[in-house]
Amino acid sequence: MTDKIKIDIVSDVVCPWCIIGYKRLEKAVTDLGLEDKIEIEWQPFELNPDMPAEGENLRAHSARKYGTTPEGSIKARASLAQVAGELGFKFDYYDDMKMVNTRDTHILLEYAKEQGKQHELKIRLFEAFFSHQQDLSDPKVLAEALEDVGLNAEEALAKLNNPDAREKVAKEEAFWQSMGISSVPTVVFNRSSAVTGAHPTEVFKQILTKLVEQV
User: Fold this and answer.
1) Does the domain at residues 5-214 carry the CATH identifier 3.40.30.10?
2) Phi, psi (5° rounding) for residue 7?
3) Residues linked to residue 42 through DSSP beta bridges, in sequence order
4) 10 sits in which H/E element
5) pLDDT tens for residues 162-176?
6) Which DSSP symbol is given to 159?
7) Does the pTM of the predicted model rise above 0.90?
8) Reduced to 3 states, what is the DSSP secondary structure of residue 187?
């Protein structure tokens, strides 16, 4: 096998099931020994593209958007934290946690892709939001994340005021939506098949095994 399996993961950095889905996929890849045979590219999706700059308290947001009760929110957070913890990822929810507009993070991820650091930054942003109680709408938090993965924060943050950079991400989002993707995570294999949702590791193993056999 010489060709790599191209995997596009359409996701948002504030989506808990996106990081859970990725960790399950990662385990499938590791278990099958395919680390050198996989090429991952993260694609943009905004759960709340109309979210104002100041964001919204996460519990209030869940109640407004999904009708989640306070009791339901506590139960859901505990369940997510347990699932993520079993996969080696820490969820640390807190009362003042906000849902934020994520367009800027996707612009930075596009910049990071050009520098060969997209995957590292994506994981770092997941960690900032879910593990370290950091506000992804704060430029200082974004700068720290960029520097942590070896990127030039000043150069990257300048992209946020670049109309072409913003338009490029908007077009990428529109492309994936035009392909019928309306929820995340959606994992696309070789641009020919896709699954939506944080499927169990065994499901990803089955898919990857079949793709390996086809090469």
Assistant:
1) yes
2) -120, 120
3) 9
4) strand 5-11
5) 999 999 999 999 999
6) G
7) yes
8) strand
